[in-house]
From TrEMBL:
Organism annotation: Aureimonas glaciei
Domain AMP-binding enzyme C-terminal intervals: 530-608
Keyword vocabulary terms for this entry: Acetylation, ATP-binding, Ligase, Magnesium, Metal-binding, Nucleotide-binding
Lineage of the organism: Bacteria, Pseudomonadati, Pseudomonadota, Alphaproteobacteria, Hyphomicrobiales
Cited PANTHER family: ACETYL-COENZYME A SYNTHETASE, ACETYL-COENZYME A SYNTHETASE 1
Superkingdom of the organism of origin: Bacteria
GO CC terms of this entry: cytosol
Name assigned to this protein: Acetyl-coenzyme A synthetase
Residues binding ATP, per UniProt: G386, E387, P388, D410, T411, W412, W413, Q414, T415, D499, R514, R525
Annotated Acetyl-coenzyme A synthetase N-terminal domain residues: 21-78
HAMAP family the UniProt entry points to: Ac_CoA_synth (MF_01123)
Positions that bind CoA: R188, G189, G190, K191, T310, N334, S522, R583
UniProt cross-references to InterPro entries, sorted A to Z: Ac_CoA_lig, ACAS_N, AMP-bd_C, AMP-bd_C_sf, AMP-binding_CS, AMP-dep_synth/lig_dom, ANL_N_sf
Domain AMP-dependent synthetase/ligase, first and last residues per copy: 80-467
Length: 648
C-alpha cells in the first residue's frame, strides 16, 4: 500500500511536526492528568478546575468526569472572549442554497444575535437545565439557537431537518422539551422543505406521548405561507426586536449538560447521547485546531448538517471556540450543478474543506470537468468523515480536487466520542489512502477478538478504546444503564465502538465499518431495527429484516426482507407504498433501496433471524453462506436466493 510522506509544504508553518506528534502522544497516554491539565486551559474558565480526570469504565460503575470542579460558559468561550481581539472578523460565513444569497456575520454580530435569542428563550421561561429542541435548516439561526441555549444553560437537542414529524415528535418527548425552535421552510437544491408543517405534526405526536410543547419559536426563512398557533408560536424576527442584545452567560459546571443528540444503535429506538460542557469544548476545540492545522485568518468549511454531531463539533463549537471563520452552507453538492462545492470554495477562498465520502463519490461520478473548471487554489487541507473512504475516492479527492497539494485528513469518530479520535495531522503524520492513520492525543485504541481477547500486531478485530478522553459522551439521556449496557458490557472495562478495524505493520488504523446492526447510508447512521420497526408498523407487513449492502454512492444501501400478512399479495405498488411508509415514519434518509418479499426468513430453531445469511444474499455473495445447519427450515434460503433483488 502506498504511503504519502508528509510533504515539505505541509510542514511549513504546521502546528506540529512528526516528532511533536510522537512526543505529545506519548505524554498524553502516560500522563493524562498533566497533558489535559495543561490543554484544559485553552478555554476560559470562570472558576479554574483543580481536578482533571475522574473516569471509570468499570462494569456497573461507569462514570466519566473531566475538569469536574471547573466552571465555564461555552457560549462565552465561543463569543465574548473573541470580541476584543476579533470582534469585526467574520465568525459565520453563510452561503445560501441560492448562489446569489450569502452573507458574513462578525463575532460582534453573532454575539448580539445569540444574546437576543437567549433573552427570547428566557422570556418564555426557559431556565438552566431545560431541554430545547431545534429543528432548523442550515442557516445562521441554527448556530444562534445552539449558542443561546448554551448561554443560559439550557440543553439543546438538535434534530436533523430531514427527519419526519414522527421522528421529531419522539425526540421532543424523549428529551422532555416544552420549547421547539424551527423555521417556516428550508431551502435545499431549489426546493422547499416544510419544516413548520412537520413541526406542527410533531408537536401533536409529542402531546400524545405526554409532552406538551408550549412555545414554538419560528425563524422566517422563505416567507412561505405557514399556519400559526396563537399563544404558542412566536416569530423570531418579531421577538428579537423586543429584547436586548446582551445577556449574561450562565456559569456552568464542567459536567453540566451542553446537549443531547439522538443517534441510532443496533437495537431499539435512537438514544439520546449526552455531552457536557467543559471536556467537550476542550476536546472539540483542540481537535479542530490540530487536525486541520488551523491558521489565523483562514476560512474553514465543513459541509455537514448541524443536525449531526459533525455540525455540532466542527461547524459550531470547535471553530467558534478557536475564533475561526466557519462557513455554513444551506444547499446540496449538486445544485445548481456538480461544481457548487468548488465554486463556493473559490467564492469564499476556503482554505480547509471537510466533507463526506458519499459526496466525494457522487461528485467523482459527475466527472472531472465540474472540478477542473474551478481554481481551488485557496485550498490547503482536505478532510473526510462519516464512513470509510475507499482508495479510489481518496485518490480522486487528493489528485483532482486537491491537485496533490493538500493533505487529506480521514477522521474517524462517532456521535458518542464528541470529537475526532483517529486521524492524520497535516504536518505530522504520513498518509495512506483509506487509513484514518493514528490516534489523536489521549486516545488508546485496542483490537479485541469476539471473546474479548486483546490482539497484538498487524491484525483485524473489534475496535475498543481503553481509557477516557475529554470529549466522550457521559450517559444516555435518562438511561445510564443503557449507556453501560451498550458501550461497556460487550468487552467489560472497555468502550466498544461498534466498529471493526485493522492495524497494519506500521501501527496505522484502518476502519472497516460497523460490526453491529448499525448501517451507514450516505454517512447517515441508522439502526436496522428502526427500519424494521417502521416496516412492521405497516398493516400489511407481518415481519421484516433489514440489512446493509454495498452501494456505489451511498456506501451502504438499505435492503429489506419483508414477510406479508396472510392473504396480502406482493406487488410493485405495495413496494412503493412501503418505501413511502418508511420515509414517513423516519424520513427520506431511511428510504429502502431494495425490498424483497419473502414468505419466510432464515431462523434458528430458537427463532433468531440469521442476519449473516441475509447480508450475504443482499451482497450477492451467496456462494459462501457458511453454516446453515442450525436453520429451522433450510429451504427458505433457496427461495431467498432465487428472488434476490440485487442481481448483477
Ligand atoms: C460511525 C459513527 C462522527 C462523524 C459522523 C458520523 C463511521 C465515521 C469514519 C471514518 C470510517 C467512519 C463509523 C462510526 N465513521 N467516520 N473516517 N472512517 N468510518 O457519526 O453518525 O455517530 O457515525 O461512522 O462506522 O462508528 P455517527
Amino acid at each position: 500500500m502506498t504511503t504519502i510522506p508528509v510533504k515539505d509544504a505541509w510542514k511549513q508553518g504546521a502546528l506540529l511536526s512528526e516528532a511533536d506528534y510522537a512526543a505529545w502522544y506519548r505524554r498524553s497516554v502516560e500522563d493524562p492528568e498533566g497533558f489535559w491539565g495543561e490543554h484544559g486551559k485553552r478555554v476560559d474558565w470562570i472558576t479554574p478546575f483543580t481536578k482533571v480526570k475522574n473516569t471509570s469504565f468499570a462494569p456497573g460503575n461507569v462514570s466519566i468526569k473531566w475538569f469536574e470542579d471547573g466552571v465555564l460558559n461555552v457560549s462565552a468561550n465561543c463569543l465574548d472572549r473573541h470580541l476584543e481581539s476579533r470582534g469585526e472578523q467574520t465568525a459565520i460565513l453563510f452561503e445560501g442554497d441560492d448562489p446569489a444569497d450569502s452573507r458574513a456575520i462578525s463575532y460582534r454580530e453573532l454575539h448580539g444575535e445569540v444574546c437576543r435569542m437567549a433573552n427570547v428563550l428566557k422570556a418564555h421561561g426557559v431556565q438552566k437545565g431545560d431541554r430545547v429542541t431545534i429543528y432548523l435548516p442550515m442557516i445562521p439561526e441554527a448556530a444562534y439557537a445552539m449558542l443561546a441555549c448554551a448561554r443560559i444553560g439550557a440543553v439543546h437537542s438538535v434534530v436533523f431537518g430531514g427527519f419526519s414529524p414522527d421522528a421529531l415528535g419522539g425526540r421532543l418527548a424523549g428529551a422532555g422539551s416544552s420549547v421547539l425552535i424551527t423555521a417556516d421552510e428550508g431551502r435545499r437544491g431549489g426546493k422547499s422543505v416544510p419544516l413548520k408543517k412537520n413541526a406542527d405534526r410533531a408537536v401533536e405526536i409529542a402531546a400524545k406521548a405526554g409532552q406538551v410543547v408550549s412555545t414554538v419559536l419560528v425563524v422566517q426563512r422563505t416567507g412561505g405561507d405557514v399556519a400559526v398557533t396563537p399563544g404558542r408560536d412566536i416569530w423570531w424576527h418579531e421577538a428579537r426586536e423586543t429584547v436586548e442584545a446582551s445577556c449574561e452567560p450562565e456559569p456552568m459546571g464542567a459536567e453540566d449538560p451542553l446537549f443531547i443528540l439522538y443517534t441510532s444503535g443496533s437495537t431499539g429506538q435512537p438514544k439520546g447521547v449526552l455531552h457536557t460542557s467543559g471536556g467537550y469544548l476542550v476536546y472539540a476545540a483542540m481537535t479542530h485546531q490540530y487536525v486541520f492545522d488551523l491558521r489565523e485568518g483562514e476560512v474553514y468549511w465543513c459541509t455537514a448538517d448541524v443536525g449531526w454531531v459533525t455540525g455540532h463539533s466542527y461547524i459550531v463549537y470547535g471553530p467558534l471556540a478557536n475564533g475561526a471563520t466557519t462557513l455554513m452552507f444551506e444547499g446540496v453538492p449538486n445544485y445548481p450543478d456538480a461544481s457548487r462545492f468548488w465554486q463556493v470554495i473559490d467564492k469564499h477562498q476556503v482554505n480547509i474543506f471537510y466533507t463526506a465520502p458519499t459526496a466525494i463519490r457522487a461528485l467523482m461520478g459527475a466527472g472531472d470537468a465540474f472540478v477542473e473548471k474551478t481554481s481551488r487554489k485557496s485550498l490547503r487541507v482536505l478532510g473526510s468523515v462519516g464512513e470509510p473512504i475507499n482508495p479510489e475516492a481518496w485518490n480522486w479527492y487528493y489528485k483532482i480536487v486537491g491537485e496533490e497539494r493538500c493533505p487529506i485528513v480521514d477522521t474517524w469518530w462517532q456521535t458518542e466520542t464528541g470529537g475526532i479520535l483517529i486521524t492524520p495531522l497535516p504536518g505530522a503524520i504520513a498518509l495512506k489512502p483509506g487509513s484514518a492513520t493514528r490516534p489523536f492525543f489521549g486516545v488508546k485504541p485496542e483490537l479485541v477478538d469476539s471473546e474479548g481477547g486483546v490482539l497484538e500486531g498487524a491484525v483485524s478485530g473489534n475496535l475498543c478504546i481503553t481509557d477516557s478522553w475529554p470529549g466522550q459522551m457521559r450517559t444516555v439521556y435518562g438511561d445510564h444503564e443503557r449507556f453501560e449496557q451498550t458501550y461497556f458490557s460487550t468487552y467489560p472495562g472497555k468502550y466498544f465502538t461498534g466498529d471493526g478495524a485493522r492495524r497494519d505493520e506500521d501501527g496505522y488504523w484502518w476502519i472497516t465499518g460497523r460490526v453491529d446492526d448499525v448501517i451507514n447510508v450516505s454517512g447517515h447512521r441508522m439502526g436496522t431495527a428502526e427500519v424494521e420497526s417502521a416496516l412492521v408498523s405497516h398493516p400489511k407487513v407481518s415481519e421484516a429484516a433489514v440489512v446493509g449492502y454495498p452501494h456505489d454512492i451511498k456506501g451502504q444501501g438499505i435492503y429489506c426482507y419483508v414477510t406479508l400478512m396472510t392473504g396480502e399479495e406482493p406487488s410493485e405498488a405495495l413496494k412503493k407504498e412501503l418505501v413511502a411508509h418508511v420515509r414517513n415514519e423516519i424520513g427520506p434518509i431511511a428510504s429502502p433501496d431494495q425490498i424483497q418479499f419473502s414468505p419466510g426468513l432464515p431462523k434458528t430453531r430458537s427463532g433468531k433471524i440469521m442476519r449473516r445469511i441475509l447480508r450475504k444474499i443482499a451482497e450477492n455473495d451467496f456462494g459462501a453462506l457458511g453454516d446453515t445447519s442450525t436453520l429451522a427450515d433450510p429451504a427458505v434460503v433457496d427461495d431467498l436466493i432465487e428472488h434476490r433483488q440485487n442481481k448483477e
